[in-house]
Amino acid sequence: MAPKKNKAPALAPPSPVVQRSPRSARSFSWRVIWPLAAVALIVAFQPVQSADLWWDLSRGREVITGSLRPSADLLSLDAAAEADWLGGVPWFVAHSTLGDHGLMVLRVVATALACLALAIWGGKSNTLFSLVLGVAVLLCLRNVVDPGGLFFDTVGAAVVFAVGVRYARQPTLRRLAPIAIVILLWANFGPRMILAYPVLVSSLLVSFDGDKRHCLRPVLLALMTAIIAGCITPRGLATLGDSARIMFPVIAAQGANLEFSPWSPLARGPWGSVEAGFLLLTFFAALLLTRTAGRLFFSLAMVMLIAHLATWTSAPNLAPSAAWLAMAVITVAGKTAELRATPRLGYLFDSPLPRRTDFYIVIGAVLLCGGALGVFRAGGWGIHADLDFRYLELALGDVPAHGTILADSGRSAGMAAWLRPGELQVQDTPQRALLGGRLAAHQHLLDDLRHERKMSYHRANGDTGGWWIPLAKRRTALLLIAAEDLAMIRALEPSLWKPFSLDSPVLPYASTADTFYTARIVETLSHANFVNVGPWSYSPPASTQSVFDRDLWGWREHAADRQSSLRQSRVFRAMGLTTAALRVLRYEQGRGDSPELHREVAECQANLYHSEVVVAGQASRFRELAVAAMAPATEAPPRAAASSPPAARPDSLAWRRAIDAYVNGDLPDALASLAQGALGVGADPEAMYAQAWILLEQGDPEAAHQQLKAIEADADKALRVLVQDLQASLTWDSSQPDAGNALPALP
Amino acid sequence: MRLRHVGERERFVRWLIFTLLAAAAGAAVYAMTQPQPLEPPAVFSPAAQVDAHRCAECHSTLYEEFQKAPHRFTLRPGNDSELIERFRGQSIDLFNDTYQFDKVQGMLQVSAKAFPGRRSVDWIFGSGHHALTPVTLLENPRGETEMFQFHASWYPDHGLGLTPGSMAQGETASIGLHHSATETLQCFGCHSTFLAVENGQLDLNRSVVGVTCARCHPGAARHADSEGELPTAVDWKALSPLDSINRCGECHRRIEEFTQDELTTENQLLIRFAPVGLALSPCFQSQAEASRSVRMDCITCHDPHRPAATDPAYYAQRCNTCHAPSQADSTPCPVRPQGSDCLTCHMPKVKTSDYLAFTDHWIRVREPEKAKAFHAVPSK
User: Fold this and answer.
1) Where is pLDDT greater, at A346 or B102?
2) What is the CATH architecture assignment of A562-729?
3) What is the ipTM of this complex?
4) A224 touches chain B (CB under 8 A)
5) Which of B107, B138, B198, B258 to mutate to test binding with chain A, by most A CBs within 10 Å of its CB?
6) Which of A676, B126, B159, B360 is 20 to 30 Å from B204 at the Cα level?
């Protein structure tokens, strides 16, 4: 029976929601379950990409082998116990038992269980509200079902709420025990246990059905039990403080910059499907709030405010906050007798789903949003390529471990700890540094490396900076730097720290004074020179059919996608291997140009232009024309010295065609245009220089060398110097393979 | 608006409270998520800066003396008329080319066949006591400031000569030695009190060039703002000798930044870095063991507010504070006890290039065999 439409329901008591037909009340609605299952499939089949994956597995391995302080045993700067010491154990056990695929199996199972729970609830209510809420919750869980502490925090929040509701309905000691057990487990497995207390309080407030005058005692009893249970960890009472610091890192920041840390504010971005799900969840929670009054209103409002406070302050708090908010919304929505009638929202909350319309709308919306947010493109089975430790393993080889490792992130630290347990000792991780009050020092050290501040200097606050002395005091033998940190890679280039891998997601650096790594460094330098000026052309790494390869279960020949190639190009460019970077980009241009690709090519041209100005006081005509043709795409157009010529324009059709072809990646056409003789009688040295560069980019340095020899005598002084400089650089190790991937191949 | 019904009033109050709480939460989020940049080097911190004229209000004598100190003139713009006169009209043959300095429209400019047109001299490093090195600035593709250090510098005893670091052989078309963005910041950083930098781009118009008060006296801003009530952040008298020379060593280099292999008497590079040499000196290292209160650091012999003394007798007098035969536990020089020229033997000027000579601050017996022959009193 549809509700009466009253324009001004004055003091009308909360009316029950629309009465469903007996049939829909008894059975599950497949119109809710199927869309949720579809979303769950999309969420589940994303590669494992938790940055701390290997770190958590390493901690789990330490505990299984008898350690009570896994992080302290793995880190040289950490000696403290940790509350969530068991956090890595389940993942390590799963990995040991089921292998790498086991992590994906866990992911799928966890998503399926969450979907099942939502489907059971949503199927019973069979409303648009329940369907969309379920979708929103599943989206929020996308990053949670990876191995890591967030999983326990999210599950803990949901379960604590559920047992709290159960206790509120009948506050007995028997129902108090699960609260204690869940919180005890949460404290020993997850880092954000402090969230359990507001979750518990809110669950009691929402669900308490008895006399309000007698609710204080059970609530206090539950809280005391929860506090005691939460402190039963190796950290004892300090568990609360540690957990609060992880939830609200600003408490422990002490001069650190959280904006670029793992706990950056949500507004810092980037935003994707997870954040969209959270906003959707919030929207529906707000709509539900309009139907509530009294205790329900304030309970739900409190949950919304605290959940948002936690999430906007630190983005990783999103998932446990979403779980808490969702549980509150579901519980409040279930209190149909207490909800106010809101006719305008009746369709949303009260009407059963029609057979087709909403079903198709939701499915269509999910598919559209998913596609726009790149969910399908990022999908797959296995482990994300950014976590591929095999390159690092190949680089390290069998070099005896000594000294310690400065790892810039949890990902880097985890890889090192996982690869050579007991041998490679990492100095610190961001999370342990935060808890130990060392995060500012960690960030300052990395910042000094990034700005080449080797020697000691004084900061405005009186502290001393510079990386030389701290690294020496820590007996640093290796640096592990994320391949995305281009500023760091660029800064290390002129330093005594040299890489011994060119294509690892985490690049290892060793000191040139360290004889243990000398051979590795020399070999890598040889590789670097070869990919830059040798007879080498780029092709993406072949698939090894491992869990790290996105090869569509072996259907694709190559493992990498365009983003991997772009990352490789950027790393090459940061290392000063601009020609190598262009070689990578030319391959991708051959598969189809894009604005992002165009921008990368423009950056390379700007770099080469600048190099020529540095060497010869001015750039070649070829480079000037190339940069001018691409100028709108560069972020910072290069400026030569003040007296250099203004931006050039091609003065002939042949040059224009050549430059157009060149910037668009059609190197053969560019060569042909330059060679046509349309440039004038006789050989134009500038054109010949351009041809030499194009031949080099094509991977034919021998032909480039011959071309350069022919122009040496005719060029003006600046061009002559450029030619000499380029010729001098055209030396490479002839023992390298002629073509294909000159970089060490994965087994 | 009149809320006629109790229900509406309750609903209004409810939503009002929620809105207020939401606003409070939003304010809390805003406060907690404000960017907290990492503490920058003091030379990049505008808050730490103070105009030297403010220091002069209370420290007028020191301020007046400092007007002649070399530290104050260690970086000057290329249109400084006094400096232009030193370079103008001069030329030098380098790299099979002739580098010519001329004054053009009030600016010093350099020309050579190596590069087209002229290059302006944007800044000149050095007080002129040892050398003046002109530089020109440019931007890299990321918009960061880089510089070329011209191949020719001016030396007081020689005029134009090759700049240290520039290679004398071969052919080059470059206008000078190229320095990356970070190197450029470091160069300017040691020759300035404050550098205004944004995204790697130097704004020298807003910078305070030359080494002035706040560079060596951090906390001078709050000291001036409080009209002397608050002290500066560093009490030089309270520093240990090693900390004291390391403070100078921030620019003049520190011993801990060198490996043991580099700390040898054969390493001529050390001669330029006075704090390093001093830290290696036996008399510096053994000052803590002296039976009476003695102190040896840079300030023992040098007042940074004034030009360095040039009279050898002054320095001998400083040496004899500890080494005079009248001192009970001193080790007098067996060659010239209580002499007036200790520096010639123990801290000579050493040529580090054709045009530059620095006093070697590694105070030591430079010819041990001779010293053994004359050694009469065992050292303690």
Assistant:
1) B102
2) Alpha Horseshoe (1.25)
3) 0.86
4) no
5) B138
6) B159
